[in-house]
Amino acid sequence: AVVGALAAGVAVLALRPPLGAWPSLQELRADYRTGTGEQRQVALSQQMTVQMNTQTRINVLAPESIELLGGEAEILASGARQPVTVAAGAGRLLAQSARFNIRHTGDAVCVTCLAGAVDVVWQQRRQTLDAGQQLVYDDGAAQAVTAAAAGEASAWRTGALSFVGKPLSEVVDEINRYRPGRVLLRNAELGRRLVRMRFSIGQTDGALAMIRDLYGAQMTSLPGGIVLLS
Q1: pLDDT, tens digit (0-9, with 9 covering 90-100), for 148-162
Q2: Domain 31-147 = CATH 3.40.50.450
Q3: Which of 2, 23, 198, 230 is surrounded by the most beta carbons within 10 Å?
Q4: Which residue numbers delimit the FecR protein domain (predicted)?
């Protein structure tokens, strides 16, 4: 019984590493993946280029077709005769000549068209996004098309992170995608506070100091890159 319990515990740790301390089995099995803070460009064909952001995993289904298992990527479709396709969560994206950003975190998928046009197929429904438009869907629902915040979705491509009117909890979640270790937000009221911030991807510790100084957070640094905000 003890051996069985230990084996089960090891399996859980392999599937869900604590605080993201090491890659999960799903990450290791992906055709392409990026680590914390890493970005990578993959040219799958003359018609499809994928710029992968931090903590991103993709599988290649065909030269012009991928599945985004998790993370974020910018896709460039360069005049393909047949649409390039991206599967993500419960939906699928198709584009012939477009540049778009797709983010898949948890169950939610956010698609932002940056140039050209991209079709989003979700549960037999098809919606076309033009440049500057955004759509979010998950397994249970697809939201209405909205105007994307200027420069926010693609800020990471310029080495920056931008937040306008976002809860501080979302800022902390995003910092955790780029920074080794873990930032733990222990103040729910602070986490709900709406903030406006822009900072360099390489200066996440500076962003934490900004949160401390501007929003009155108490910051405690622990070994292993662990930071407590309260």
Answers
A1: 987 899 999 999 999
A2: no
A3: 23
A4: 31-118
